[in-house]
Amino acid sequence: MTYYQNIIETANYIIKYFGEPIDYAVVLGSGITLELEDQQELGYEAIPLFPGNKHANRVKGHANKLTFGKISGKNVLVLNGRLHYYEGYSMKDVAFMTYVVKHLGVKGLFITNACGAINTNFREGDIVCLDDFISLVSNNPLMGENEPRLGERFVDMTTPFDSYLVENLHKSAKKLDITLHTGVYGFFQGPYFETRAEIRAFKTMGCDLVGMSTVPEVIAANHASLPVAVLACATNMATGIQEKKHDHEHVLQTAQKISENLKKLLIETLQNLK
Ligand code: HPA
């Protein structure tokens, strides 16, 4: 079966499993949690064509399941955990679920992640709504032959993030008195945390944040004309900006703390969306 056929089959499998139309989808990054009303679950291992089933050991902090339920009266599908390029998956594997989400017929996708803050106006624990990205990785899911049923060969990236979703996130943050910054995310391959010199270089390039995910999914969403917005959670200051050394446990703990505001933000935003 082709990549395209696998996507369509997986979308049909998920639609049949939950049996209801899905309004919005949310991807949760490391350590971030979100409970839904009337929640149903589907483990990734039970999805026959899920590319992650190729590797047994996945990253700690990811539950590796789909949850379906309601937030503010909307039907929401949550992807608890994602595939990363640094795990050894291909970019097409990393982007697979984004294309599946598109073929579920959702109106938009919210992506969350844990990342390091380079911009010193940001603090550990802050949430940043992306307005652009810099890929520091010389590969992406559109490389190779184009599948025209997924999208066009050459994709415009003038505005990678959907203005309707982004404006609503900012409106909700204001109403809830939650600080929501705007920033540029640098996509670093990992899985090591960047060096001090790399962070200095990325700062000069214009990165406010740095992380090891999200951009392949954002590129695929743009390819597929799927409206997307990203809430990046600064779980630490980037290397050399903070004095202490990095530690994945700390990333997970901070992400868990941020989850509370993230959830409030999504509840309020989904309430106001069409
Ligand atoms: N760098 C890259 N990825 C990350 C970081 C970081 O500092 N923190 C959480 N994910």
TrEMBL record:
InterPro entries: Nucleoside_phosphorylase_d, Nucleoside_phosphorylase_sf, Purine_phosphorylase
BP GO annotations: nucleoside metabolic process
Residues the entry annotates as binding a purine D-ribonucleoside: E194, N236
GO cellular component, one term: cytoplasm
Pathway(s) of this molecule: Purine metabolism; purine nucleoside salvage
Alphabetical keyword list: Glycosyltransferase, Transferase
Superkingdom of source: Bacteria
Presence of the UniProt keyword Transmembrane in the record: no
Chemical reaction(s) catalysed: a purine 2'-deoxy-D-ribonucleoside + phosphate = a purine nucleobase + 2-deoxy-alpha-D-ribose 1-phosphate
Nucleoside phosphorylase domain: residues covered: 24-270
Annotated positions binding phosphate: S30, H62, R82, L83, H84, A114, S213
UniProt EC number: 2.4.2.1
Gene Ontology MF: a single term: purine-nucleoside phosphorylase activity
EC class name: transferase
Family stated for the protein in its record: Belongs to the PNP/MTAP phosphorylase family.
Protein task: The purine nucleoside phosphorylases catalyze the phosphorolytic breakdown of the N-glycosidic bond in the beta-(deoxy)ribonucleoside molecules, with the formation of the corresponding free purine bases and pentose-1-phosphate. Cleaves guanosine, inosine, 2'-deoxyguanosine and 2'-deoxyinosine.
Identification of the protein by name: Purine nucleoside phosphorylase
Protein source organism: Gemella haemolysans ATCC 10379
Gene name of the encoded protein: punA
